[in-house]
Structures are given as structure tokens and as C-alpha cells.
Amino acid sequence: MAEHHVHTNGVRTWYAERGSGDPVVLLHGALIDSRCFDGNLAALADRFTLYLPERRGHGHTADPGGPITPQLMAQDTAAFLEQVTGRVRLVGHSAGAVVALMTAIARPDLVDRLVLISGAFHRDGWLLPPAAARDIPQVIHDQHAEVSPDGPGHFPAVVDKIAASADTLLLTGADLAAVGCRTLVMVGDDDAVSLEHTVALYRGLPDAQLAVVPGTSHTLLLEQPDLCTRLVADFLTADPAPTFMPVRRRVDRMSPRG
Q: Which of the four pLDDT bands, split at 50, 70 and 90, describes residue 84?
């Protein structure tokens, strides 16, 4: 695994690169870092070149000051794609899915395929309220301290910034309709994003597939790593197969019955 830094949108962004093949970018969730993909989606390196950037205030990437919002992180991600990968398959989990979705909306020229795992498009989709630093498991504090250039004492400030941005997630149906690439929407059947919201996300995207992973929660990548990785790999590598009884995807669904 190679490690690099690149300046993106005023941030000195750390990223790892592994594998070989067409580029795939993996975006981690809030308050964690790219190590969350070890033992699951990192296995995609056997067929792709994986890029694992760590966003502002997360992992090896310092907090440059100011807010940490999904809108800013989407701008950072677009700058990363422009400078490092070009047009790419983009995969995000949790807050990383939010950032991936916003990137695809703002810069459709940079996203070839999109995978949204346990992500929301509106604040009302989250079932859990924003957390304070005291509510975050100690293991997350410890992991941040292991690699953060800001030092362990800065973690509560990052938590507060993320929590403060929660109400800014207000995407609309028109925003979803602007996504021009094929998208896989994946969620656990007992996730922190409601199933109703996930279905609305799936239905709002023009060209989407939906996968509900049984017996899993918001940490479905850890709970069913092989199944989740296989679903993502199949979506990223295969063209859509025709179905025998389509309803939503019927090309003639608006024509009158004969």
C-alpha cells in the first residue's frame, strides 16, 4: 500500500493507494478513517486500483480550521478526483455516502458509477441524533489519536463540527434526479437510516438498484463483509442484466395498454 498527500481545496489530504486496475475511490464514514474498509471493501484491490482519501479532520488529514460540512467535503472530493483519479467509480459509507452523493450531483462528469451504503439525502432520514464526544465509543477516540496530526485532544472539536453540520443535509428530489450515473443503494435492514428513507433515495435516483442486507445494522460492512463486498464488486464490474418482469424499469410503462 502506498501513502500520499495532495492539496485539495485548501486541505492537505492524506490518501492510500492499493491494487491495480480501473480506479475506485472509497469514502469512509464520519469520525473514523479509511481503516474501516479493512477486511471488507479493501478486497476490491484484487481487481481495481483503490484510492482511500481521509477527509478533513479525519484520520491522517488535519483539520484546516472552520466548519466540517458534507458540502465542503464534497468540494474536497471533487478536487481530489480532478487531481488524482479523473472520472471514477465512487463508493461511500454513511457520511461518506452523503459526500459521494453530493459529489455526483455537483460533478457528474467525475463519477462513472456510484455506490451509496447506509447514506441519507436529507437530515430526516437519520434515526440517530448527532452525538457528543462523550457518547462516542472509546475505540473511536483511540483510533483518531493513533494517526491524527492534530493530536488526541482535538477529537471533541471534530465531533462538535460534524454534529453542527447535521441540519445542513437538505437534498431534494430534484437534486436526486440530477444524478446521471448508475447507482447502487445499499442498507442494513436495521440501519441508522430508515428503510423508508432509503427507498425514497432509491426511487428518486434515475438509474438505481437497491440492496437490503438482512440481519445487519449501520455497520453492515463489518457484519457481512463477504456479502457486501460481493454486491459492490458485482455492481462495479457488470452491466445490468435484463429482468423478466420489470415494473419500475419498464421502458414502456407510460404507454397505454393494448
A: very high
